[in-house]
Amino acid sequence: MTEMVYGAVPVRDGEPILPKWWRTIDKWAMSCILLLFAVGMLLGLAASPPLAAKNGFDSFHYVQRQAVFGVLAVIAMVLTSMMTPIMVRRLAIVGFLLSFVALALLPFFGTDFGKGAVRWYSMGFASFQPSEFLKPGFVVVAAWMMAAALEINGPPGKTWSFALCISIVLMLALQPDFGQACLVLFGWGVMYFVAGAPLVLLVGMAGLVVLAGTFAYSNSEHFARRIDGFLSPDIDPRTQLGYATDAIREGGLFGVGVGEGQVKWSLPDAHTDFIIAVAAEEYGLILVMCVIALYAVIVVRSLLRLVRERDPFVRLAGTGLACMFGVQAMINMGVAVRLLPAKGMTLPFVSYGGSSVIASGIAVGMLLAFTRSRPQGQISDLLGRGRAR
């Protein structure tokens, strides 16, 4: 019915799903995603052998595991990108409910793996971090609620989505995981802004975030320690930020050479949170700029395609996914160069981690599904038809 009203472009009847998917998908964005995964494998070869040797594994143990995770992520991405927006919404609702329950049960059954924050479930052979899978599901569910609120006599979806957002942020802050909490709040704020939120309200929310940060600084030793380390004019060379800063400085423009970097032997999270420091040391600023360009292409192309989208749900959900994806990458790299306090956040598709890679595959699969070319005509066609009447 929508296609009939808006003057849809003719659809090829009986077209097989694969050719139709290939014709409508954003090939540039998908190519950049695959290149990011390839960069992650390359950096994994450099960063993970020291950790494997420390834990008594084969040198490429973590690389092989990352390859398995990557294959699963690519399969999830492709399958999800073939779905219609309605199918994506249904998948997101189920995934969100399961992840929300898993997040709520973390204090009782979760583990911190000695890192001071209960964020994972240990399954023996692997671990599972529910917050990674919660993020894309929350974005789509919140977008659905906001889009429903835009309809005539629609429900108070914006209020519902805000209540849901706050409940998630509180659960994440109690782990504590302030980085993911800020990312969820940011994703909701972007969608709320696109849905037509008053600027005064957004400024008020920013003030509340500052107050919440002040409260957390006064009552959380974990949070205060990271903020103090970030604000300190001197960097302790024995800390993660100290090692990362030295590595980036040593790398310069072209790097010290493949396999010649030393930071991977000192940083405990060189293969996850600080993998960009390994890239900067061994391959230099050139590779770092290429990685930044790949993330920028994915986000910008997605937003440009969403600008032409007339379905409010698709526009809101796609915008939230694209912005959250890009900001997570910015936070990870910003921490490594000391532009932001340490957050414990992975670099999508590049850092090691099964939950991170597979959840990123599902998230970008949803984004690719929302940005596929669909027969909806041009806005000028609709305006021209209104004048003709």
What does this structure look like?
Its main location: membrane. It is a multi-pass membrane protein. The chain is 69% helix and 1% strand. With 389 residues, it is mostly helical. The chain has one domain. The chain has a two-stranded antiparallel ribbon with strand order 1-2. Strand 1 (121-122) and strand 2 form a beta hairpin. Helix 13 (240-251) packs across helix 14. The longest helix has 33 residues, at 275-307. The two termini are 19 Å apart.
Record keyword descriptors for this entry.
single chain; 389 residues; mainly alpha; two-stranded antiparallel ribbon; 2 strands; 1% strand; globular; disordered C terminus
Write the layout of secondary structure elements.
Blueprint: H1 2-5, H2 17-24, H3 27-47, H4 49-54, H5 61-81, H6 85-104, H7 106-109, E1 121-122, E2 127-128, H8 130-149, H9 157-173, H10 178-194, H11 199-219, H12 221-231, H13 240-251, H14 275-307, H15 312-336, H16 354-370, H17 379-388
Antiparallel strand pairs: 1-2
Helix pairs in contact: 3-5, 3-14, 5-16, 6-8, 8-9, 8-10, 8-15, 8-16, 9-10, 10-15, 11-12, 13-14, 14-15, 15-16
Can I get a quick summary?
InterPro entries: FtsW, FtsW/RodA. The chain is an all-alpha fold and 389 residues long.
Shape: globular
| Major sheet characteristics | 2 strands, antiparallel
What integer is the average pLDDT? 85
Tell me the β content. Answer: under 5%
Give unreliable regions as ranges: 1-11, 377-389
Tell me the number of helical segments per DSSP (H or I, 4 or more residues long). Answer: 17
Q: Strand-and-helix sequence, N→C?
A: HHHHHHHEEHHHHHHHHHH
Category by helix and strand content? mainly alpha
Number of domain units: 1
Q: What distance lies between the first and last C-alpha atoms, to the nearest angstrom? A: 19 Å
Count of β-strands: 2
Helix content: 55-70%
With strands numbered from the N-terminus, the spatial order across the biggest sheet is 1-2
Q: Taking Cα atoms only, what radius of gyration do you get, to the nearest Å?
A: 22 Å
